[in-house]
Amino acid sequence: MSTSATTSDLPTTEMASLKVEQEQQQVKRGTAKRDALRANEIKVQKLWEDAKVFEADPDPSRESFMVTFPYPYSNGHLHIGHGFSLTKAMFRAQFERHQGKNVLFPFAFHCTGMPIQAAANKLKTEIELYGCPPRFPEEDDSVRAQMEEEIAQAAVVSASTKDKSKGNKTKLVQKTGTGIVRQWNILAKMVPLDEIPLFTDAIHWLHYFPPIGVEHLKKFGAGVDWRRSFITTFVNPYYDAFIQWQFQVLREKNKIMFGKRNNVYSLVDQQVCADHDRSVGEGVGPQEYVLIKLRVLQPDHGQARHEKMAALLSKYPDLPVYLVPATLRPETMYGQTNCFVLPEGEYGAFRIDSTNEIFIMSHRAARGISCQVWKDNVHYTKEFGKIDCLESFTGHELLGLPLKAPLAKYEKVYTLPLLTISMGKGTGVVTSVPSDAPDDYVSLKALQDKVDFRAKYDITDDMVLPYEVVPIISIEGYGEASAVFMCEKLKIQSFNDKAKLTQAKDETYLKGFTIGVMTVGPHSGKKVSEAKPIIRQEMIDAGDACLYFEPESIVVSRTNDECVVAATDQWYLAYGEESWTDAVRAHVLNGEEFNAYGARDRYEYVVGWLKEWACTRQFGLGTFLPWDKQWVIESLSDSTIYMSFYLIANTLQGIDNLVGDSTKSPGKVQPEDLTKEVFDYIYRKGPLPETRIAQETLDKMRDEFRYWYPMNLRVSAKDLIGNHLTMALYNHAAVWDNEPELWPKGYYCNGHVLVDAEKMSKSKGNFLMLDETVEKYTADATRLACADAGDNMDDANFSRDIADVTVLSLVTEETWISETINSASLRTNGELKLMDKILLNEINRAIAITSECFANMHFKDGLKACWYELLNARNDYRAWSKDSDIPMHKDVIRRWAETLVILICPICPHWSEMLWKILGKEGFAVQAPWPVDEKEDPILSRQAKFLRDSIKSFRSQAGKAKKGWSKASILVTDSYPAWKVKLLEWMAQQYSAEIGFPASLMNDMKTWASENIDDKKMIKLCMQLASFTKKEVEEVGTAAMDVQLPFDQKSVFSECLKYVQVQLDLTEVDLINLDVDTEAAAGLPEGKIENTTPGKPQLYLR
Questions:
Q1: How far apart are alpha carbons 38 and 775 in whole angstroms?
Q2: In terms of C-beta density within 10 A (0-12 exposed, 13-18 middle, 19 or more buried), how is residue 193 classed?
């Protein structure tokens, strides 16, 4: 018996140890390729850093190219969404380096605003309430279950009633549907537990996260000049001085004003809630409504539900009581027939101090109006944010009330039920104009037609039946009651036909405003668009209406407060001022001066609507307004010209000095010496200031600014078009109003990124942090997957499968090139074969396509050309070499490899750097010149396509052959039948280099064929050939209409015959030119002969 033990004989502990070891070895083997790539990336990044390859200084002999990216907010780690957008800047920067330009790509970190301060305050509260480390109530399973149930129920109630006054879910709860979010737990995923208490100090965040951001971006191979990096806020005294100077200049130019303005506002935070201070509602602004005063008359039907209203009217006889629906269409009030409320809604009677009136409205709307101005800077209520509720009502208690509606035809209208009212929008009260509002018409008609419906809500006949539609606006093609017309046209039966109602509403509202004409009132005959503002103002002046504002859609602050619109004393930037706007618009529309990369209309639109912007607040981190220290400059206003600060940050702060420690200043500049006069000298051609700063240092900073500016390209996600990007244009136009040549030259915006075709979500497990993604897939594979994800402003898709497969692809190509490039088996002399020439031509084609794509920010298409198609071209060449027993040519392979390495370098620079060394090249790949485009030979390209397409077609034909057939003839012809020649010549006459084929081509073709082709069966063939040729022309150009091919088909096959034979797994292949080899052609099937045309050979198997 053997003394060696089998695994089954081993003790349990040894078995466990062996199993762990086996698993570790398996994991190691499974990640070996990735680990090798990561090791190379770390090595390459060290080489780059030591050689300072991305540190860019002015060089008058070289063209500059400056690209920037909006600095990310530093309250956590970067994720793949940051990485995806960032790659657009990284790719373009590297591409321009290869063009020989002096490229600067700087980067910084944004800390201004409320989020960090709010998070620090929240953490402090958690520790105070629950200890350190905290023991949260939800750690008890039963308590947690109860809390989650309450959250879920609140969500259901909120969704069903849309009454946002009852509380809101946080942003995280909205994303997950349920959950309890604690700041401690958020931080626990990013920092050591024992360090979390330090984050109760907001300043600690500024010292902790930005340096981590630097390290993560270095691992990503971002190619940044880190000498120019910084953080914002007063913590960095250099940047603080810069922003103070910017605002002094803006004030000097009368771009900053002070006064009461309507802004989105948080009552909890007691300040304006700017975009970056929001967890929900970024980009949402104030919406103006007109409140129509429908006076409540004495109840006249003796219904018990009106007792509370009767008591209110009796108690306050001197205060008129109004239901106040909010409308965007005051010009339609002539057509009122009734008023709607939500039967289950909750309303209040609120005292309006400024007018001595009582408004019936939702509690949510009352909260908002208490923060707003009635007129002449007088608020609606005595105390800002406070309003007296004199009585509460359900919607049911308001039904059936008689009302006096201003401008209405009817002396008295009634309050009726409407079940689709949203208590989260407007006042919860809706006035009814059934002539021009499809919802109103359908709802009124339902009450008039359905006795049971009226009875359910105690609505008597006289409250509904006498009220007919009142025509007020004439619309050509729609009549004088457009709502009735559209409801009948779309066959809308009830208010449950929501999609149709939306369509009807959108169409009637648009047509009514643009082409409608008033038919009633003193403004009869005027266009609605002209009458609307006049009627609005007349109603306000008469006391029949007043203004009310609320956010366009829900806005929730970082402190989880649903925001209102408030008129507050505020410093604001006067965006929208006519001359300022005109200057920006002219720049945006100037295609020679500003490249919008396909989004010009979006910038023009934003320039058209962007108006006064609150630029300060009284809470959060930032720079204090220099002339009014109670205000802090908000985050969208201290980030508009900071791109110019990069150009002096290397002198002021330098490397590893994000917070601006003055003892590390390379230029020995003290922050207090950065006066307005100093900045004016650097940036605005001001006179030499009296200062302790050396003139040599001042001149260096001034010269750097003049060398690098304007920035050539700014890359961003599309959601910044509506704020930051357009505001940056405005601020450049203000600070450098006399030097428009310094304004931004180009903005490129991308869409959001999905992960595996789904929105990123922690609950779905596809929320990818940048650092973790790099470690899992390598930097280069991650970058390639970002390039493959897509461009332009459509949402892109980051595929983890692509990243995973790329790891294998990179290692495979590195191995093949290493083993092949110096192989002794390669050909080194002799005339180049056709396939050698084809590969060289494919290389030239790839260079041209990639150059154009990268220059225009089309990285997905560029990746296809410089990676996938070049690899495929090499694969075809390699297969030809193997199948034909002809060695590959050394010079051709080296040309291919060197081209591939540089073309892919903007996307996979670490891999390129490694291969550059393997190829024996000097210097760094990232500093190598772009491959020379030796111009694509279109005839060679056609030959290559001809060969590829033919083999593909032959495979299809061979697959249908009888078993055992192993011999074949390739049939070619150099001439078309006469009818085809006629057709191609006719098509060539229809083609224009400017517009291509006319849209009527196929119809014209049908007419031409009927006149020139006698055989009706041939007409169908003509149509088929015309359709096919049209597509060919779109792909390869007018050569597709040549009546003779520019190359010898038989010669192409002759050079590659053995290759074709092996590819098709045949024992024998010969060639037959049907025009010449008449004897060989005899006896061939007629179908094969007929289907053989120039460029479309046939395979005859036997």
A1: 8
A2: exposed
Given this model, what pLDDT does residue 154 score? 56
**What one-character-per-residue DSSP string does 95-119 give?**
HHHHTT-EEE----BB--BSHHHHH
Q: Tokens for 379?
A: 């608020």
Name the DSSP class of 520. Answer: S
Q: Is 847 exposed, middle or buried (0-12, 13-18, 19+ CB in 10 A)?
A: buried
Q: What is the pLDDT of residues 195-236, one digit of tens each?
A: 999 999 999 999 999 999 999 999 999 999 999 999 999 999
pTM for the complete prediction?
A: 0.80
8-state DSSP, 864: I
At residue 820, the 3 state secondary structure works out as helix
Amino acid at 491: K
Instruction: Say how far apart CA 887 and CA 872 lie, in whole Å.
Output: 18
945 half-sphere exposure, CB direction, 13 A CA radius: 16
pLDDT value at 151 more than 90: no
> Taking 90 as the threshold, does the pLDDT of residue 362 lie above it?
yes
Q: How far apart are CA 88 and CA 105, in angstroms?
A: 12
Rounded Cα distance between 791 and 1100, Å, is 45
Q: What band does 284 get if pLDDT is binned at 50, 70 and 90? A: confident
Contact 465, 447 (CB under 8 A): no
Assign 384 to helix, strand or coil.
coil
Confidence band (pLDDT; 50, 70, 90) for 156?
low
Q: What is the token pair recorded at 439?
A: 């919802």
Size (the chain), residues = 1102
Q: Which residue bears the tokens 């049908």?
A: 1006
Which residues are CB-contacts of 77 (< 8 A; sequence separation ≥ 6)? 190, 209, 212, 213, 216, 769, 770, 771
At residue 306's C-alpha, the angle toward residues 305 and 308, to 5°, is 100
Task: Please tell me the chain's helix, strand, coil percentages from 3-state DSSP, rounded to the nearest 5.
Answer: 50, 15, 35
The DSSP code sequence of 617-655 is: ESSSBS-B-TT-TT-EE-TTTSSSSGGGTHHHHHHHT-T
Percent of the chain scoring above 90 in pLDDT: 75
Which of 182, 200, 195, 210 is CA-nearest to residue 120?
200
The amino acid present at 504, given as its one-letter code, is A
- The structure tokens 């039948």 sit at 977
CB atoms within 10 A of CB 952: 10
- The two most distant CA atoms of the chain are separated, in Å, by 116
Provide mean pLDDT across the span 801-823.
Answer: 96
Task: Give the position of tokens 């060539």.
Answer: 988
User: What secondary structure letter does DSSP report for 857?
Assistant: T
**What pLDDT does 951 receive?**
93
HSE-up of residue 37 (Cα within 13 Å, Cβ side) = 30
pLDDT digits (tens, 9 = 90+) for 366-422: 999 999 999 988 999 999 999 999 999 999 999 999 999 999 999 999 999 999 999
Q: How far is CA 591 from the centre of its chain?
A: 22
Is residue 6's pLDDT more than 60?
no
Q: What is the Cα–Cα distance from 181 to 732, expressed in whole angstroms?
A: 41
What tokens does 916 get? Answer: 């550059």
Buried b (16+ CB within 10 A) or exposed e, 132-165: eebebebeeeeeeeebeeebeeebeebeebbbbb
Q: What is the three-class DSSP state of 1065?
A: coil
The contacts of residue 994 (CB under 8 Å, 6+ apart) are none
Q: How confident is the model at residue 172 (pLDDT cuts 50, 70, 90)?
A: very low
Contacts of the segment 802-805: beta carbons below 8 A, 24+ positions apart: 803/773, 803/776, 803/777, 804/777
Give the chain's mean pLDDT. Answer: 91
Helix then strand count (H, E) for the chain reads: 39, 33
SS3 assignment, position 525: coil
Q: 3-class SS at 702? A: helix
Who's near 128: CB < 8 A, 6+ residues apart?
Answer: none
761 phi and psi, to 5 degrees? -155, 135
